[in-house]
Amino acid sequence: MSSPSEDPKPGLPDDFDATAMRERYRAERDKRLRPDGNDQYIEVVGDFARYLEDPYVEQRLEREVLTEDVEVLVIGGGFGGLQMGARLRDAGIEDLRIIEKGGDFGGTWYWNRYPGAQCDIESYIYLPLLEEVGYIPTEKYAFAKEILEYSQKLGRHYGLYEGALFETEVTDLTWDDEASRWIVTTDRGDTLRARFVTMANGPLNRPKLPGIPGVEDFAGHTFHTSRWDYDYTGGGPLGGLDRLHDKTVAVIGTGATAIQCVPFLGETAKQLYVFQRTPSSVDVRGNKPTDPDWAASLDPGWHKQRMENFNGLVSGVPQPEDLVDDGWTDLIGKMIRRFKDAMQEGAPDVPKILEMANFEKMNEIRQRVDELVDDPAVADKLKPYYQMFCKRPTFNDDFLPTFNRPNVELVDTDGQGVERITEKGLVVAGVEYEVDCIIYATGFEVGTAYSRRAGYQIRGRGGRTLEQKWEAGMQSLHGMQSHDFPNCFVMHMLQAAFTANFPHLLEEQTTHIAYIVGHALEVGATKVEVTREAEEAWAKLIIEKGAGALGALGGPECTPGYYNNEGQERDSSAAQAVPYGGGSIEFFELLAKWRASGDFEGLEFGRSEA
Length: 610
Ligand code: NDP
Fold this sequence. Notes:
By secondary structure, this protein is an alpha/beta fold. It is 34% helix and 15% strand. Residues 118-120, 204, 210, 212, 252-258, 260, 275, 277-278, 392, 413, 417-418, 441-444, 561-562 line the site of NADPH dihydro-nicotinamide-adenine-dinucleotide phosphate. The site of NADPH dihydro-nicotinamide-adenine-dinucleotide phosphate (NDP) has 27 residues, from helix 8.
């Protein structure tokens, strides 16, 4: 690196050159930018729909076709649907059905059973409703099996199995204005006439495949990580993939999923090739079993307090202590320390402080690669050159050392991705790697239309779809309700909030929705709808507040990925399809105040004769 151009700060080497590092970051981004953005990925439809098949259901459930009325229909049986169901039960709602395409509750944790799958937000704040259910996770970072079992426990605790429709997909949602009901059809031929519908489809529910030329030509075995094929690999979620001992396996992708499953593949595969386009930042995991004395010492209210403490820290709001104390909060700690130092020295230059703290953190991440990977050439390729939070940070103690194994090879594609797939394998820089199996660790759709990811259209008053309405710019109140779509509630981040700990957002949203639905039922209203004025005012506020938290994640200067719309500029209508720019803390306070006022500002409650 050339001579230092700015004051090095504690935590960075004396010869650290910020200008050169900025240039390096920019060059890494530029070489990855591609004009096709989200269109580079293949939608899993047609022949590719096989990647969506459920490998975990042994025998398809047979049941009668339903035609009936239901008070509240919840779509999705993951954490969102379970939290929604719990809050609706708390509000005294009995007539409730959950529709779920999987064979059981669990959502993300139903589908993602790949070896090593584990929550990477501390389980004591990630798992919802712990105090209500009276459960303490067994480890700081619980593995998928425990989380799936906890989801089932939630289902039992709140009586949500009654009325649950598993292995069922919604095919259409149409509002009947006269009857004030949603007509919901499913792939089982059901027709449900629901008074209220709440949608908890999940933010990362639809697997995507890379549009690599020749992707359909490969003659060997393939699957996506979210539909792990244990029949092929042997073993289970805790490893022991014994059927791979004579197999050459390719993994495409090095995101949070690959980081967790690669160590288990490396352990047993005869030969493993890991195809990398952009390295992840891989920080210390440091998992540990739950200390029973600590668990016994927790006071009532601890769960919410811990969630809020974490959310405060990762939102940059200083807290009296760091209860979670992990890789997520460490960067923020660094920023706050630097900020305090700068305050003592005089007027602080905030953006510079944040950047320097980020450099410091990423330097640590790169140093860790050198410490854990023996071959310096391989280590160099595994080092991420972008700002922390350009991509989802990852945490794992086994991923990097896996590259010291003689049977594991990193195939770095210099930011370009796999060049071609052939009948026998994968091509990078003109070299063909012959393999028996390709595992796609290529993630999930993010930037595509809500209805495409949901798998059905939502037709409001007059037959117009939500997609059509939002094409010209998203309009909602608090991200959850939209005019012409009465009695319908959407749970997602847009026009709502971004939280690193997603179940925290779900907790606030489900509390809010249950409050509105509970009130409607209490006063005998059959219809609750946002006024046009209220949603216009909310959209205006969203634009005024700017990208906020989402802007802090994956800005345009970042390497492309789903945090920054694959590096593509968003069109002007997308300026209002962002989380609330004031941040999640402000958003949650705003919702709480709105509820506390009791006047349901912006909503109209009505009654139909039907
Ligand atoms: P990601 O979208 O994060 O990663 C996909 C990977 O595939 C990236 O490394 C990407 O490279 C790579 N890729 C895409 N196209 C190509 C190509 N043509 N050639 C080579 N590589 C390619 O998906 P994940 O499933 O890893 O994670 C998705 C999200 O799920 C995470 O961000 C996280 O939010 C969540 N998750 C959470 C976990 C938890 O513990 N709670 C665990 C796992 C996932 P590039 O970066 O260059 O685009």
